[in-house]
Design a protein that fits this description.
Elements lengths: L1 E12 L2 E13 L3 E7 L5 H8 L7 E6 L2 E2 L5 H11 E4 L11 H11 L4 H14 L15 H13 L5 E5 L7 H14 L4 E5 L3 H7 L2 E6 L2 E5 L22 H13 L2 H37 L7 E4 L1 E2 L2 H12 L21 E2 L4 H9 L2 H4 E6 L5 E6 L2 E4 L15 E3 L4 H7 E6 L8 E5 L8 H6 L17 E5 L1 H4 E3 L4 E3 L6 H9 L5 E12 L9 E4 L1 H12 L2 H8 L16 H8 L7 E6 L2 H15 L13 H45 L1 H9 L4 H42 L9 H28 L2 H6 L2
Parallel strand pairs: 3-8, 3-9, 6-7, 7-8, 17-24, 19-23
Antiparallel strand pairs: 1-2, 1-4, 4-5, 9-10, 11-25, 12-13, 14-25, 15-16, 15-20, 18-23, 19-24, 20-23, 21-22
Helix pairs in contact: 3-4, 3-5, 4-5, 5-6, 8-23, 9-21, 9-23, 9-24, 21-23, 21-24, 23-24
The structure holds adenosine-5'-diphosphate (ADP) and magnesium ion.
The site of magnesium ion has 2 residues, from helix 1.
């Protein structure tokens, strides 16, 4: 039972107030077929919209089953529309992208009815309106009369008590109109039907009550109804709401009708995702590659403690001083005493330090190689020719690097990173050496010359392996001329050197070349040379330490060697190191057993420095860490730039998706009106469009990730050459999932404003739009 009390509706247009309804008083019976007649503009539609809760009245009251609607909130009106009202429109207002069945079911999805029940009900009402065989058709595949029947079926599905029909036959021919009127008459047996029409004939023939409106006033009522006063009841209408799943399926079906557009939108949206995905895959791959290298190959490289080393931070500091000079002296210049700089920082590798290393757990985590600073004297004699100390060409007059040196490698390192070309590895407990050649089996001519071998033809491996050369200690190399010690090779004492070579003098150590080796990795830079075991070095050192020249030099504050003069860059200590008069290493190399052991080693090295003055601290260099961190820094800054670009495209595509969602809102305005008329809340409308944005975001993200996975193999082909790794670009699947989530989130955010606009649309205006 419906009562309308003193109902008024004013429209405010600018400054003016327009009265569309002026104090309407009408009561309706539970079951009757009421026709409202009136000229165009008399307020019929306005009245219907107020009764249906699509529009709000200015004053008065609508009382439904004894409940006043004065205090109704939006959600009460929504629920009221969903449960109590069925709308039938002149232009049917079916949703074009849904089939007949779904159009009818829609109102039930809002009232939370199960899927099976929904379908059963929909089929039932469709059967009732005679459309059982057309359920799978789209609205545009039906005639006008059929469409209106669908619209009536939709109005009936929630079994409402009131059907509001606004000119339901207005767009139909007279024959079809009769069919619809018959249907409505049938329905009015157990429902209240309020039908607006300007067809008086039809009204008289079918309706059992005719109300005439003119200029917003009731001018006649053929069968008025008086209500006895009763107590008003509280509102008991249960709520209506749309689940996210319904919203998603509604948007999904809508997007299916616009497949090409959806795909293009998603494709455009995916570009930003592809950008970010590629950057991520490259960065992930590179980081992984570097970490593996550090963990694997690089882990074999040593930490280094040197008596003198280049401290980059020191250099940078002095540069900074130059960059920030003190204010200049005014009116003149001032002399100062320049600091003597070796250009190097120094570590005081002392006996205590060696002791510390040896007694620590360090040997558990890696192997230590001590290198000594003595200048080695190497000789090889073939026939009557004495060959000596092969050196590389030094730049700017310096003597260059010796091609014969103590091995700087731990034995395990040699094992891991060198392959034997011929012979065997050296035995660390013997006076043995390895000849290191490059991967092409080439080596500097000087080395071949040293071994008395030809340099203009291929030398068979067998001619080298097994050869022996000799290391001369100080007593064999220096001769005393009464005042100074003189290197024998600078005087006419070459014969003496030859004699010693062939004698069994204990002042000479014989070293055997055990094998020829080459590296098996391009990650370790190895110079071609003859490398001998540390045992050779320590034995030479032991002899040199007690040699005549060393004993004499220790006792003298001036140089005892001919041709050597002390200066700030080469003082007594330096000379003693060169002579082997100090049995401390000038370089300590520590080879970690594994990447994890390296951390333990670093801890031990750092522990030594704790509580010591800066001058007494011993610093190590970790060339691997420096190199890796440098590469990482470069990589990070490059990817930061790329990420910035990708983010911009991500932002642009988000804005675009926002615009497209807005376009969709404009296109689906009528659908918004229909949804509201069947009881959808504002929240439900925004859900529909949020769902659309989310779907686009999902498709865009998925496309982006898929395209990235398709591009990655191509990128890897290009990266294989410079990196030697065929799998650098690599999109981690968790990152892929994250990107899809990001895409959904961004489009969701981008769609928020359009979906709010949609939710705020006035349903009356929305329904009127075409
Ligand atoms: P009918 O359905 O009887 O043709 P309506 O109820 O649609 O008439 O309109 C009644 C009057 O209210 C008309 O004069 C119309 O111009 C006016 N009207 C309807 N809706 C609005 C609106 N949103 N703003 C201003 N005036 C309106
Ligand atoms: Mg109208």
């Amino acid at each position: 039972m419906l009562e309308i009390k003193d109902l008024k509706k004013h429209y405010i247009i600018g400054e003016q107030t327009f009265t569309a309804l002026n104090s309407i008083n009408l009561n309706f019976r539970k079951h009757e077929f009421v026709a409202i007649l009136g000229q165009s503009g008399s307020g019929k539609t306005t009245l219907l919209n107020l009764i249906g809760g699509l529009d709000r009245y200015t004053s008065g009251d609508i009382i439904i089953d004894n409940v006043s609607t004065k205090n109704y909130k939006d959600k009460d009106w929504d629920a009221y529309r969903n449960h109590r009202i069925g709308f039938v429109f002149q232009n049917y207002n079916l949703i074009a992208h849904l089939d007949v069945l779904s159009n009818v079911e829609l109102a039930q999805t809002l009232s939370g009815v199960s899927k099976e029940e929904r379908k059963r009900r929909a089929i039932e009402v469709l059967t009732r309106v005679g459309l059982k065989d057309h359920m799978k058709k789209k609205p545009n595949q039906l005639s006008g009369g059929q469409q209106q029947r669908v619209s009536i079926a939709r109005a009936l599905i929630n079994n409402p008590s009131i059907i509001l029909a606004d000119e339901p036959t207005g767009a139909l021919d007279s024959e079809t109109s009769v069919d619809i009127m018959n249907l409505l008459t049938e329905i009015s047996e157990d429902k209240l039907i309020i039908m607006v029409t300007h067809n008086g004939e039809l009204a008289k023939k079918y309706a059992n009550r005719i109300v005439t409106l003119k200029d917003g006033l009731v001018t006649s009522d053929s069968n008025p109804f008086e209500v006895k006063r009763k107590d008003r009841l509280e509102n008991t209408v249960s709520k209506s709401s749309m689940s996210y799943l319904t919203a998603l399926s509604l948007s999904f079906k809508n997007m299916l009708t616009k497949k090409v557009r959806t795909l293009i939108t998603a494709l455009a949206g995916s570009i930003g995702i592809i950008g970010v995905a590629l950057v991520m895959s490259l960065q992930y791959g590179f980081t992984d590659y570097l970490n593996n290298m550090e963990r694997g190959t690089f882990a074999g490289l040593p930490l280094q403690v040197s008596r003198s080393y280049i401290d980059i931070s020191d250099i940078m500091m002095s540069n900074r001083q130059q960059l920030n000079p003190l204010p200049p002296i005014e009116g003149g210049v001032l002399g100062y005493e320049p600091e003597v700089s070796r250009g190097l920082s120094t570590n005081d590798i002392s006996e205590e330090y060696i002791e510390y290393l040896e007694t620590s757990d360090l040997n558990q985590y890696g192997s230590i190689v001590y290198q000594y600073g003595f200048t080695g004297q190497y000789y090889y004699m073939a026939g009557d020719t004495l060959y000596t100390n092969p050196r590389s060409q030094g730049s700017l007059g310096s003597s260059g690097r010796s091609y014969v040196t103590q091995s700087a490698y731990a034995y395990e390192f040699v094992n891991d990173f060198f392959d034997v070309v011929h012979g065997t590895y050296y035995n660390v407990d013997a006076h043995e050496a390895l000849l290191v050649v490059n991967r092409e089996h080439k080596l500097p001519k000087e080395i071949l010359t040293f071994l008395g071998l030809p340099t203009d033809q291929v030398v068979p491996f067998e001619d080298i392996v097994g050869k022996e050369f000799k290391v001369y200690t100080n007593n064999a190399y220096y001769t005393y001329n009464g005042t100074q010690y003189v290197p024998k090779n600078t005087t006419n004492n070459l014969e003496d050197l030859k004699t010693i070579y062939n004698s069994n003098s204990s002042d000479v150590i014989t070293v055997r070349i055990a094998g020829i080796v080459k590296t098996n990795t391009n990650l370790v830079q190895v110079n071609e040379s003859i490398i001998y075991t540390p045992l050779v070095a320590t034995d030479v050192l032991a002899k040199n330490n007690v040699s005549d020249v060393v004993v004499a030099q220790r006792a003298s504050e001036t140089s005892v060697i001919q041709g050597v003069v002390f200066n700030p860059l080469k003082d007594k200590e330096d000379v003693l190191y060169e002579l082997g008069g100090i049995d401390l290493p000038n370089t300590i190399l520590i080879y970690p057993n594994s990447f994890d052991d390296k951390a333990n080693i670093v801890e031990i090295l750092d522990a030594y420095n704790e509580g010591l003055d800066e001058d007494d601290q011993i610093n190590y260099t970790d060339n691997v860490a420096v190199a890796v961190s440098m590469i990482k820094t470069v990589m990070d800054s490059v990817s930061a730039v790329l990420v910035a670009f990708a983010s911009i495209s991500l932002f642009v595509s988000s804005v675009m998706i926002g615009i497209i969602t807005y376009t969709s809102v404009l296109e689906r305005t009528k659908e918004i009106g229909v949804l509201r008329s069947i009881g959808a809340r504002k929240k439900d409308i925004s859900r529909v469009f949020n769902a659309e944005a989310i779907l686009i975001g999902f498709v865009a993200g998925l496309l982006g990730v898929m395209i990235t996975y398709a591009i990655i193999p191509v990128i890897n082909i290009f990266l294989e050459e410079p990196t030697g790794n065929s799998n650098i670009a690599n999109l981690f699947y968790l990152h892929a999932i994250l990107l899809v989530v990001i895409s959904i989130t961004l489009t969701f955010i981008a769609g928020l404003i359009p979906s709010r606009i949609a939710a705020k649309k006035d349903p009356v205006v929305a329904l009127r739009s075409e």
